[in-house]
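BUG: 3D viewer hangs when loading the predicted structure for this chain

Environment: internal workstation, default settings.
Expected: structure renders.
Actual: progress bar stalls at 90%.

Input used:
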Amino acid sequence: MNYKTMIILTALMMSIVPAFADDSSNVADTVASLQRQLDLQQDQVSNVTAVIEQYDQQFQTLQKSVDDGSMNPSAIQTQRQGIEEAETQALSQYLKPYQLSEWRSLQASTEPSGGNNADEYSNLPNNPSSSQ
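Structure tokens produced before the viewer hung:
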């Protein structure tokens, strides 16, 4: 399961888009769920869509690097966090304070095993003492 699918399943509580679905469908479903979860207004939707599309692409690139083993395992968590932080920063210009707070809660709830990615990425060591 790729990271973006996990976000959709866990944070946005929606049906998982099959892995063979095209990216535009995945983004559209994500935005539709965000519209419900964050109570997005119509004028926010197009801006949020552009941000989600941009960062979905970055998450997919990260996942490909994980899958093909081209990324140093110690860099995966840092890279993922960097993408999440940049995505939140980009969204913050379009979200109201209560929406941004809810977005951050949704993101936090997607941390596998309390922030330990050993279950998500089998090439990471299982270290229960590492928490975020």
